[in-house]
Amino acid sequence: MVAENSARASKRRPTVVASGLLAGLLAVVVICTRADAFHSPLAVMVVAAIGLAAVLLQLRFYNRQQLHPVQAPLWLNVLGILLAVIALFSDLFRLGRPIGQLAALGAVGAFAISSAVILHGFRKHRILVK
Fold it and tell me: What are the sequence ranges of the domains in the chain?
C-alpha cells in the first residue's frame, strides 16, 4: 500500500512542480503589473497565453500515461499565436487601435477554445476508461 502511494506520488510530482511554476509565473505577472494595466487587451492576452501554456503542459504530462493521447488543435493554437503577434505589433504595422484590440480578443478566444477542447478531451477519455 505504501509503495503504491509512493509510486503514484512520484508520477504526479512533475505535474505538481510544473503547476506550481506556472502559478508562480502568473502571480509575478499580477504582482508586478499596475492595476490600470489590466484594462489593456494585451495584458488579458498574456494571462490567457499563460493559461494555455498550463493546459498544454498538462496535456504533455497526461499523454505520457495514456495509450490514446489527446491531441491539441494545432490550427487553433497557430491562429491564436498569429493574432497575438498582430496585437503585439499593431503599432509597428501601423494598424489602428481597434484592429489591435480585435486581434487580442481573437487570440484570447482562440486560446480559450483550444484549452476547452483539450480539457473536454481529458473528460471524455476519463469517462470512456471508467
Answer: 2-129
